[in-house]
Design brief:
The protein has a five-stranded mixed beta sheet with strand order 1-7-6-5-19, with no helix packed on it. 31% of the residues lie in helices and 16% in strands. The protein is of the alpha/beta class. Bound molecules: NADP nicotinamide-adenine-dinucleotide phosphate. The site of NADP nicotinamide-adenine-dinucleotide phosphate (NAP) has 26 residues, from helix 6.
Length: 553
């Protein structure tokens, strides 16, 4: 990785650009490429040393994508998708980071990026119709447009556990993992959390550690990844049809991972509903999906996220699987989720997660039965007085999702209005792209868009294209200012809620709702109608002359 701090030491002092972009993850990188293609001067600020966003920061052991590599990749360049070869069905974090670096080099992106710069303020000036953006390194730059490509899961949640700061052993955050290799050999390791990150890390840490204690508050449903090296013949066949696959990812009814008509699921065609089917038929279908692996399992019966009866059948199937794998019945029981419908917290995808609890060096502590009292310098003391001595503690405690990164920036719109105030009762946006009171400010995969309920690459490319096309349209028509009208934003917020309330999602107590952050307003943040429906709406807005937005000179 290049030492960008040395390479780009100079500060921006009052420089003017056409567009300022915040964040050099997959969204910011593609934005920069598209904006450059239009001949626009762009400055991109990024807090990390290099590109990759979430894949730059989340380097914990076992980190890999839970979306399949051939779908979780850029589609904007056929040359790129042809020349890049993924090695496994689910790419590891290092491989995804190599891909991000490859894209940055191929499209020569880094020359317009200032790394190790965290944006602290973004203020709009009505008189000049410009945004002024400042960083923690003293940069100050202006542009008529500002695009927030700050990611949905980029601000770690600091858990409120007494004594955490007193721990004198090695303390690691899954989402801020060191760049140097970490060894657990012979150590007594504790992991707090059992979400997607922990579920990937635990089997790998268990193989190295002397002893591993997993502190679990809420068990999650996890399906096997069935990861494997990609067969070159399959990859060739897939790539030969790449445009059709990509089209189906974009326009499909679901999350943008695949289209069953083009790629028939080897587990069989999905059922519309479980009603009228025998137990044997349903079990056989679920078994087929389970054996193929991956998050598509949740789509085996189409109304799983809508119908509590179907959901219970699918959840029972997974609980039976857990009990069949985990030998100790008390541990198996504790690992079985019962407090939320399956899929309402993001489904996890694992490699030998449940099997790990059969190892002699692994112990599960159920915090619901046995809560933590406090962390001490050498371990964790429980409320019942018992003590777990630890050399190393790993926190995989999640993120202040979707709104966290934006609210950490002092964003002020028209007449000095603050974003923090606007979102005090939860995020309000039009399409998850723009906001009333914040002219010429765009969000990539913002709250109110499919974002985290979708294949992020599909949603990122859609938002980037929409945003860049909008900027181009404005320049062509001499508009200097764009902003949603209040009625459009109100209706969109109502619609997002209405769609969510028609599903089981709000019952999950998940980070989708902000429920993992004490004091955060409980608002279901992503748009749950699927990427195809959403894209149609966004395209219609444009076809109707940017319906719901107002332009100003
Ligand atoms: P998460 O799903 O929010 O899980 C956080 C875990 O920490 C939960 O088990 C939570 O328990 C626990 N926790 C939080 N505060 C705690 C406390 N004070 N005491 C005890 N336990 C506490 O976070 P994550 O695992 O980082 O995953 C977040 C999202 O990132 C995923 O849902 C996924 O979208 C994405 N992700 C994707 C991948 C991938 O592509 N492979 C990998 C990792 C993450 P409670 O449930 O009780 O709050």
């Amino acid at each position: 990785m290049s030492n960008t701090a040395e390479k780009y030491p100079q500060r921006d002092e009052g420089k003017r650009f056409d567009v300022i972009v915040v964040g050099a993850g997959f969204a910011g990188m593609y934005l920069l490429h598209r904006l450059r293609g239009m001949g626009l001067t762009t400055r991109l600020y990024e807090a990390g040393h290099s590109v990759g966003g979430t894949w730059y920061w989340n380097r914990y052991p076992g980190a890999r994508c839970d979306a399949e590599s051939l779908a979780y990749s850029y589609s904007f360049s056929s040359e790129l998708e042809t020349e890049w070869n993924w090695s496994e069905r689910y790419a590891t974090q290092p491989e995804i980071l190599r891909y991000a670096e490859h894209v940055a080099d191929k499209f020569d992106l880094k020359r317009d990026i200032r790394f190790e710069r965290r944006v602290t303020r973004a203020h709009y000036d009505d008189r000049s119709s410009t945004w002024t953006v400042e960083t923690d390194r003293g940069d100050r730059a202006t542009a008529p447009f500002c695009v927030m490509a700050t990611g949905c899961l980029s601000v770690p949640q600091e858990p409120q556990i007494a004594g955490l700061k007193e721990f004198a052993g090695n303390l690691y955050w899954a989402s801020r993992w060191p760049h140097q290799p970490v060894s657990f050999a012979g150590q007594r390791v504790g992991v707090i959390g059992t979400g997607s990150s922990a579920i990937q890390a635990i089997p790998v840490i268990a193989e190295q550690a002397g002893h591993l204690t997993v502190f679990q508050r809420t068990p999650n449903f996890s399906v096997p990844a069935c990861n494997a090296p990609l067969d070159p013949a399959f990859v060739d066949a897939f790539k030969a049809n790449y445009p059709a696959h990509r089209r189906n990812h974009r326009l499909g009814m679901g999350a943008g991972f695949g289209d069953l008509q083009i790629e028939p699921h080897p587990g069989g065609p999905a059922l519309e509903t479980a009603a009228g089917k025998s137990q044997t038929e349903i079990r056989a279908l679920l078994e087929g999906y389970w054996r193929i692996g991956g998050a598509n399992f949740i789509g085996a019966i189409a109304d799983t996220m809508l119908n509590p009866d179907t959901n219970r059948i699918v959840a029972d199937f997974v609980r039976d699987k857990i009990r069949a794998v985990v030998k100790d019945p008390a541990t198996a029981d504790a690992l079985c989720p019962t407090s939320h419908p399956i899929g309402t917290k993001r489904i996890c995808v694992d490699s030998a997660y449940y099997e790990t609890y059969n190892r002699a060096n692994v112990k599960l502590v159920n915090l619901r039965a046995d809560p933590i009292d406090r962390v001490m310098h050498n371990g964790i003391r429980m409320k019942d007085g018992s003590f777990h001595e630890l050399d190393t503690l790993v926190l995989a405690t999640g993120f202040d999702a979707m709104t966290g990164a934006l609210l950490r920036i002092d964003v002020r719109g028209s007449n000095g209005a603050s974003l923090a105030q606007k979102w005090a009762a939860g995020p309000r946006t039009y399409l998850g792209i723009g906001m009333v009171g914040f002219p010429n400010l765009f969000m990539i995969t913002g709250p109110g868009s499919p974002s985290v309920l979708s294949n992020m690459l599909v949603s990122i490319e859609q938002h980037v294209d929409w945003t860049v096309d909008c900027v181009e349209y404005m320049r062509k028509h001499g508009h200097r200012r764009i902003e949603p009208v209040p009625a459009a934003e109100d209706q969109w917020v109502d619609h997002v809620n209405e769609v969510a309330n028609g599903t089981l999602f709000p019952q999950g107590g998940s980070w989708y709702l902000g429920a993992n952050i004490p004091g955060k307003p409980r608002v279901f943040m992503p748009y749950a109608a699927g990427v195809g429906v959403y894209r149609e709406i966004c395209d219609r807005v444009v076809a109707n002359g940017y319906e719901g937005f107002s332009f100003g000179a």
